[in-house]
């Protein structure tokens, strides 16, 4: 037996720890075999080849890809070879190998006893049963009592509620994630409305600002300029091989807080926690990445606890080369169906990265596209309250960066679909103000390329207030990253010519919100229809309670990602963002409208995500961009059935 094991798991490719090793009866050297044992994981590979199947709609795929890449060079040779395999049922089976996983030839991990208690994927703490304690060498390592996961949850919530400072709650949640992953996700799913502001905006913003001081254990992959030329090797250092979603940042524009360099890692970590909790992607399939090319944040550069490279940001070719090496390594290591979400890059890189990799990789930019999709859904809901069609409204944005121009473009696209007017015409109903004032045609030459489509004929105006008075928008959207910019005068002006002014203050975290919920309601005498990127508590005004929704891309990206994965999509298409938006808007109930809410509550988010996923997957099949065949009949039920559940498993 020992000799057999030695032959199978050649030295250098396997790691043994703990006391026991068992092999599954399904083990075979020819196909990916996984054995799932009490506290034991085995996956392995030998001469395994993935069957290449033509999708039934390969010509559709070809034409969609052509349309997406314009007249650029053909990438179809590579795209048409999209592999179909792994079996979707297997895909979400915890710890089961897929072809994407089979990168390292042999890997064996065994955990029991003390190391089992220290392995966050398997640790259950006091919830290990008597039998499990006997079977896995846990006797004496735990106090005698055995408890349920529900009791553990109650205790943790009680402890968390005692912390007064949000950052303490954040740290307690991160500790839990590293101690007992299933309990972390169970807690987050069951208490999503209470805990979202802890692991996500606004608290994650403060966590990033103080990341160096609160840093305990690394939580993702750090790829810095030091790793140039070695990124593929670095990816192989990550313990999980079957990655389905990567969230990557370079830390240059973290929320509305600016350049936080390497400390931006809190964002990919937080976003991926939501992918698992809200979208049901299994945690081991998620990889947070921070690309560190330096920082221009002087305070951080001088901070003795700063964890990143102490140099000014690399730019130009050096920056592009590192990003390109990363993108190539990702595809080489995980295949073409791994989703890469760009997050919190600065404008000057975000648009270029999306344009460059959108035609060769499965990528999307959450700040441009995810935010656009969530806001469009909120606007469709708002029309139920204010009447009219999208094309009958006038939009004014403060902020012409990723979120502003991304939302504006998706609105124009939807308007043009609805009314059959060309998208160029639709754009004329949408106005943007940047730091220099209203974007108008006389500024066109000096504008960055992503602002040019919004340079309409109008005399120059250099303040938001004047722009509001002149354009008379029905809908005002803040995407500036600059707090307190929707002043009393601005909101009063909106309320002077709109019965129900729609005001969206999207910037995060709360400190950067263009105005608070209270300000929006008070300054409009309770008439505003308001939503914000970071959450606000309900407001009492004139004896009435006002509830506001959270227009945050967290509604979209987990379901979008799930839809892409279950369909085996190989590209993200704008129509998928519209499909996601439409699915979200459909989830708003009459009861929500009656409360003035533009979004359904987050407490339903897993159901919402399943609907978004199904709509996105449907679109992927329609466009011929899906590779996972046959197409499941009921995609909502299928999406739900694929979702990760954090309930403890029995290790017997
Ligand atoms: O992270 C959030 O809360 C939303 C977002 O993408 C951003 O503000 O950059
Ligand atoms: Mg973001």
List keywords for this structure.
about 650 residues; alpha/beta; Hemocyanin, N-terminal domain; Rossmann fold; 4 domains; 7-stranded mixed sheet; 5-stranded parallel sheet; 28 helices; disordered N terminus; binds oxaloacetate ion; binds magnesium ion; oxidoreductase
Structure summary:
With 652 residues, the protein is of the alpha/beta class. It contains 28 helices and 17 strands.
CATH class of the largest domain: Alpha Beta
Specify Rg, calculated over alpha carbons.
25 Å
Termini separation comes to 23 Å
Strand content: 5-15%
Active site: 200 (proton donor), 271 (proton acceptor)
GO cellular component, one term: chloroplast
Protein name: Malic enzyme
Cofactor: Mn(2+); Mg(2+)
Task: Write structural notes for this entry.
It contains 28 helices and 17 strands. It has 652 residues and is of the alpha/beta class. It folds into 4 domains: 41 residues, Hemocyanin, N-terminal domain (Up-down Bundle), CATH 1.20.1370.30; 164 residues, 3-Layer(aba) Sandwich (Rossmann fold); 183 residues, NAD(P)-binding Rossmann-like Domain (Rossmann fold, 3-Layer(aba) Sandwich); 88 residues, Rossmann fold (3-Layer(aba) Sandwich), CATH 3.40.50.10380. Strands 11-10-9-12-13-14-17 form a 7-stranded mixed beta sheet, with helices on both faces. The chain has a 5-stranded parallel beta sheet with strand order 4-6-5-7-8, sandwiched between helices. Strands 1-2-3 form a 3-stranded antiparallel beta sheet, with no helix packed on it. Helix 9 crosses helix 14. It is globular and about 75 Å long. Magnesium ion (MG) binds next to helix 18. InterPro entries: Aminoacid_DH-like_N_sf, Malic_enzyme_CS, Malic_N_dom, Malic_N_dom_sf, Malic_NAD-bd, Malic_OxRdtase, NAD(P)-bd_dom_sf. It holds the Pfam family Malic_M. It comes from Amborella trichopoda.
């Amino acid at each position: 037996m020992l000799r057999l094991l030695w032959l199978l798991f050649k030295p250098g490719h396997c790691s043994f720890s703990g006391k026991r090793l068992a092999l599954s009866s399904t083990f075979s050297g020819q196909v990916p075999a996984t054995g799932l044992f009490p506290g034991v994981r085995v996956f392995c590979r030998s001469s395994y080849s993935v069957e290449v199947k033509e999708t039934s709609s390969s010509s559709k795929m070809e034409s969609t890809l052509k349309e997406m890449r314009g007249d650029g060079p053909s990438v179809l040779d590579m795209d048409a070879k999209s592999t179909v395999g792994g079996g979707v049922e297997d895909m979400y089976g915890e710890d089961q190998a897929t072809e994407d996983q089979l990168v390292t030839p042999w890997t064996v991990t065994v955990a029991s006893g003390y190391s089992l208690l220290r392995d966050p994927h398997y640790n259950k703490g006091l919830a290990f049963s008597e039998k499990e304690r006997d079977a896995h060498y846990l006797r004496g390592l735990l106090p005698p009592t055995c408890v349920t996961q529900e009791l553990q949850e109650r205790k943790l919530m009680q402890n968390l509620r005692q912390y007064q400072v949000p950052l303490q709650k954040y740290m307690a949640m991160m500790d839990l994630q590293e101690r007992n992953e299933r309990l972390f996700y169970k807690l987050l799913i069951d208490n999503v409305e209470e805990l979202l502001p802890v692991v996500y905006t606004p608290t994650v913003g403060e966590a990033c600002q103080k990341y160096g001081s609160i840093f305990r254990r690394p939580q993702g992959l750090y790829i810095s300029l030091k790793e140039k030329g070695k990124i593929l090797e670095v990816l192989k250092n990550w313990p999980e091989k079957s990655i389905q979603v990567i969230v990557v940042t370079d830390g240059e524009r973290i929320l509305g807080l600016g350049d936080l360099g390497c400390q931006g890692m809190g964002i990919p970590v937080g976003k991926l926690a939501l992918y698992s909790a809200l979208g049901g992607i299994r945690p081991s399939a998620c990889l947070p990445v921070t690309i560190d090319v330096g920082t221009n944040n002087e305070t951080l550069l001088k901070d003795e606890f700063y964890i990143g490279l102490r140099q000014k940001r690399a730019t130009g070719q050096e920056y592009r080369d590192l990003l390109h090496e990363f993108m190539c390594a990702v595809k080489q290591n995980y295949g073409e169906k791994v989703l890469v979400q760009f997050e919190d890059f600065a404008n000057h890189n975000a648009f270029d990265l999306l344009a460059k990799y959108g035609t060769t990789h499965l990528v999307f930019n959450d700040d441009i596209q995810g935010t656009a999709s969530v806001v469009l859904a909120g606007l469709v809901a708002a029309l139920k309250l204010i009447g009219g069609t999208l094309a009958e409204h006038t939009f004014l944005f403060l902020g012409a960066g990723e979120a502003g121009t991304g939302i504006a473009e998706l609105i124009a696209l939807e308007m043009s679909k609805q009314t059959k007017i060309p998208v160029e015409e639709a754009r004329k109903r949408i106005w943007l103000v940047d730091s220099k004032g209203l974007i108008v045609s006389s500024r066109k030459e000096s504008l960055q390329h992503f602002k040019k489509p919004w340079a309409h004929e109008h005399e120059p105006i250099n303040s938001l207030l004047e722009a509001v008075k002149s354009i008379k928008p029905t809908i005002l959207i803040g995407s500036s990253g600059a707090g307190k910019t929707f002043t009393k005068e601005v909101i009063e002006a909106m309320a002077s010519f709109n019965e129900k002014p729609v005001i969206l203050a999207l910037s995060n975290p709360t400190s950067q919100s263009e105005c608070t919920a209270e300000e929006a309601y008070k300054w409009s005498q309770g008439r505003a229809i308001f939503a914000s990127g970071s959450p606000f508590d309900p407001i009492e005004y004139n004896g009435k309670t006002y509830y506001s929704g959270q227009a945050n891309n967290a509604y979209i990206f987990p379901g979008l990602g799930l839809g892409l994965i279950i369909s085996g999509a190989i590209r993200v298409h704008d129509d998928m963002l519209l499909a996601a938006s439409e699915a979200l808007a459909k989830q708003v109930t009459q009861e929500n409208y009656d409360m003035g809410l533009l979004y359904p509550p987050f407490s339903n988010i897993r159901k919402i995500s399943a609907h978004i996923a199904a709509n996105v997957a449907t679109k992927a099949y329609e466009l011929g961009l899906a590779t996972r065949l046959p197409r499941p009949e009921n995609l909502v039920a299928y999406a739900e059935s694929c979702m990760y559940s954090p309930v403890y498993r029995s290790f017997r």
